[in-house]
Every structure is written in C-alpha cells, then in structure tokens.
C-alpha cells in the first residue's frame, strides 16, 4: 500500500551523523516544520550498488541543502556497521566522506512500516516463525514534506540503482507547486513553464508545447 498522501511512519532509532558520531535516538520528527526530507532505504552496507547511490547523494548534498532539504539514508544494518563503512576509504570499497545521517534498522521494523522490506515473517507447519524472502530493504525513496506527509515514493528492486537528479527535480516540482499553485507536466524542470490545473490551462500549455 502506498504511503503517498499519508503521514510518514515515525520512528526513533540509532544513527550515525556527520560521518563519525553515533546518536541513539534519531528521528525524522526533528525536521517537521523546518525541512523536507529525502529518506532513502538501501539494502546493505559493504555491497556494490549501494555505495554508488550513497556517494551520489553526498555529491549532490549541496543541491539538496540549498533547497532546504535534508537527506537521510537507512538500511537494516547496525549503527556500528554503518560507522565502520563510513570509516573505510572509497578506494577500499567504503563511503568515507559521507556526512548526512545513516539510520540503523537492525530490527527491520522501519523498513517493514515503510513497505520496503524484501520479505516477510511467516509461520511454518510446525508453528515456527520463519522469514520468507531476503531480510534487507528494497531501494525505497520517499520525499516527505514539512508537515511529515509523504509526497512521493519509488521502490526499486535490489539490482536497480536510482537517479539522484530525479529526486532534485521532484523537490523543485514540489516547491513550484507550493509556491505558485500550478501543476507540473511531464518532464518538467525548474525554470520551465508549468500549467494551471484547469481545462483552459491544459489546453494553453499543450498548444504552446
């Protein structure tokens, strides 16, 4: 079930912030009323596609920050594993230099609440609790507004890396909608013409494009 239009599930969990500090009670609630949040799940530390995405978010972090948007990553690893990976140089497969928070979801409850866990718990014929699937998170990405409401979500399968520039475009679209009361057509980018959400507005836009 999609979370778009609903309050983002709340949580309090350990995280590594600033690349080197473990905090025990991290929450997205700190951003409500202050910033939008791009909250993204990735499968696992010390893997292959994941560092490319995490480092790509870091390389674009200034673009998010100038839009007053926080970037927060999360996986089902522990905070100690996050810290070890953050302390490993890039040329050794690490993500040293990443400064935005990485949340630890070792119990997998956050991934489950956001609908991105790549499996589920079931009881077998003997009444034993088992896990069917893979106990990691899919590549879920959520854009959460200042009220704590999810405005966009995408969920990629494990081998499919995401496009960071597309998240910047969606942030720009959300800001345009909120600032101007217009809607953003297909492939809209910042600086391009949007349109009024009326029949006349659509007709005018289509005739001009």
UniProtKB/TrEMBL annotation:
Record keywords, A-Z: Cytoplasm, Disulfide bond, Oxidoreductase, Peroxidase, Redox-active center
Gene Ontology, cellular component aspect: cytosol
Pfam families, per the entry: 1-cysPrx_C, AhpC-TSA
Record function comment: Thiol-specific peroxidase that catalyzes the reduction of hydrogen peroxide and organic hydroperoxides to water and alcohols, respectively. Plays a role in cell protection against oxidative stress by detoxifying peroxides.
Domain Thioredoxin residue range list: 2-176
Entry annotated with the keyword Chaperone: no
InterPro entries on file: AhpC/TSA, Peroxiredoxin, Peroxiredoxin_AhpC-typ, Peroxiredoxin_C, Thioredoxin-like_sf, Thioredoxin_domain
GO molecular function, a single term: thioredoxin peroxidase activity
GO BP terms, alphabetized: cell redox homeostasis; cellular response to stress; hydrogen peroxide catabolic process; response to oxidative stress
Source species taxonomy: Bacteria, Pseudomonadati, Bacteroidota, Cytophagia, Cytophagales
Chief location bin: cytoplasm
Species per Swiss-Prot/TrEMBL record: Persicobacter diffluens
Active site, per annotation: 50 (cysteine sulfenic acid (-soh) intermediate)
Name of this protein: Thioredoxin peroxidase
Family of the protein in this entry: Belongs to the peroxiredoxin family. AhpC/Prx1 subfamily.
Subcellular location: Cytoplasm
PROSITE patterns the UniProt entry points to: THIOREDOXIN_2 (PS51352)
